[in-house]
């Protein structure tokens, strides 16, 4: 069964001087093809979901060829991809992805949370990876239609959601290290529950400057698969030490950057005896998280304490812990929303931050964010499907 929907997408055409020119091809929203699955998989119990292991009935695929531009978007039955063994995504990590969610509200309406920010970040990652540009608003419309087709997969639960994974690959069949002349953008959906096996319990961190997540001039501020694959070794070492995540440090002064795959926040009494919520600045090695931005905007709107984007070092944190000035520490991200930090293992010493459950500020932020995400609080951050 075929029907029409979709979006016209834009492409990058390289002229003879190597400069970029944006060209919107003629395919419009009505040119996107939807092929519905003939059979449907059973829906899982939302209380037993393991992150990223169950997938819905349909997926979105959009091909790109340098000489022709973007091809027609297709919403089709979920299935394996066919790519050449020599493509640049497999050999040189010419690849990127995004992470976003759809939530079901008490009125059964389905909403995405601030997806325009994801589209903006995805465009930035595409530029850094030398993959073609696209119209973020039109891609978002294609994603909306995909979620609409699989809306029955959005859990009827206030502790589960539908994870959305847009992915962009260089697919040119060559071993040459260059900008790809062929690419594939696809989107898959996965119903998810809690990201961490610990649930609401605080996570433990291994802080070790031996491994570096990102560096200035690199791709730490882009959402590329290579950033995550390269972190697995350090993550496994953290587990060997009885920790769940890595507290990533950077530079000779051991700046605190991120925690696992999350942005990091420190709620403390700072050196000037001010009550402060601080997070590392976006200087090229920090991923500009959507949840991070939302937390900063909420806290600044409250106006109850200082909110800063500033450098923090392990020396700052250790001194604050010794002087009992640390109130809370937590990570933030799309997958987990907010995850409190319980303890840190650093140079053989364990520092306790939170012993159980969600501390007050993390709880307040989590409630405000999830109330918006699940439609309990009206907000222009919600994008209705």
**CATH H-level superfamily of the largest domain:** D-amino Acid Aminotransferase, subunit A, domain 2
Question: Could you tell me the radius of gyration in angstroms?
Answer: 22 Å
CATH class of the largest domain: Alpha Beta
In one word, what is the shape?
A: globular
Total helical elements: 8
Instruction: Give the CATH topology of the largest domain.
Output: D-amino Acid Aminotransferase, Chain A, domain 2
The profile of the biggest β sheet is: 11 strands, mixed
What portion of residues is helical?
10-25%
Termini separation: 22 Å
Task: Tell me what you see in this structure.
This protein has eight helices and 22 strands. Strand 2 and strand 3 form a beta hairpin. The strands form three sheets. Strands 1, 4, 5, 6, 7, 8, 9, 10, 11, 12 and 22 form an eleven-stranded mixed β-sheet that branches. Strands 13-14-15-16-19-20 form a six-stranded mixed β-barrel, surrounded by four helices. Strands 2-3 form a two-stranded antiparallel ribbon. The protein is globular. The protein folds into two domains: 148 residues, Aminotransferase class 4, branched-chain amino acid transferase, N-terminal domain (D-amino Acid Aminotransferase, Chain A, domain 1), CATH 3.30.470; 172 residues, D-amino Acid Aminotransferase, Chain A, domain 2 (Alpha-Beta Barrel).
């Amino acid at each position: 069964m075929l029907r029409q929907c979709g979006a016209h997408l834009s492409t990058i055409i390289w002229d003879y001087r190597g400069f970029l020119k944006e060209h919107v091809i003629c395919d419009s929203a009505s040119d996107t093809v939807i092929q519905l699955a003939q059979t449907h998989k059973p829906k899982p119990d939302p209380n037993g979901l393991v992150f990223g292991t169950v997938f819905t009935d349909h997926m979105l695929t959009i091909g790109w060829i340098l000489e022709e531009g973007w091809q027609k978007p297709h919403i089709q039955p979920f299935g394996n991809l066919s790519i050449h063994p020599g493509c640049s995504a497999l050999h040189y990590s010419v690849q990127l992805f995004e992470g976003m969610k759809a939530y079901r509200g008490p009125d059964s309406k389905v909403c995405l949370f601030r997806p325009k920010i994801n589209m903006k970040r995805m465009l930035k990652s595409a530029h850094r990876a030398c993959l073609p540009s696209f119209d973020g608003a039109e891609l978002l419309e294609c994603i909306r239609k995909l979620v609409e087709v699989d809306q029955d997969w959005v859990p009827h639960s206030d502790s589960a959601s539908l994870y959305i994974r847009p992915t962009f690959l260089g697919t040119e069949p060559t071993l040459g290290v260059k900008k790809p002349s062929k690419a594939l953008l696809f989107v898959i959906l996965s119903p998810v529950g809690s990201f961490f096996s610990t649930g609401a319990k605080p996570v433990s961190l291994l802080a070790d400057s031996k491994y570096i997540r990102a560096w200035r001039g690199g791709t730490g501020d882009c959402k590329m698969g290579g950033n995550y694959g390269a972190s697995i070794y350090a993550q496994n070492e953290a587990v060997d030490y009885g920790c769940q995540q890595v507290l990533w440090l950077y530079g000779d002064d051991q700046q605190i950057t991120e925690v696992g795959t999350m942005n990091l926040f420190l709620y403390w009494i700072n050196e000037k005896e001010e009550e402060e919520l601080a997070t590392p600045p976006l200087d090229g090695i920090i991923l500009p998280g959507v949840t991070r931005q939302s937390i900063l905007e909420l806290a600044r709107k409250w106006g109850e304490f200082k909110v800063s984007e500033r450098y923090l070092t392990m020396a700052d944190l250790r001194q604050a812990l010794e002087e009992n000035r640390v109130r809370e520490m937590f990570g933030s991200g799309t997958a987990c929303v907010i995850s409190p930090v319980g303890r840190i293992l650093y140079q053989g010493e364990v520092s306790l931050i939170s012993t159980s459950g969600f501390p007050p500020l993390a709880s307040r932020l989590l409630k405000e964010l999830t109330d918006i995400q699940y439609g309990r609080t009206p907000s222009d951050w919600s994008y209705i499907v």
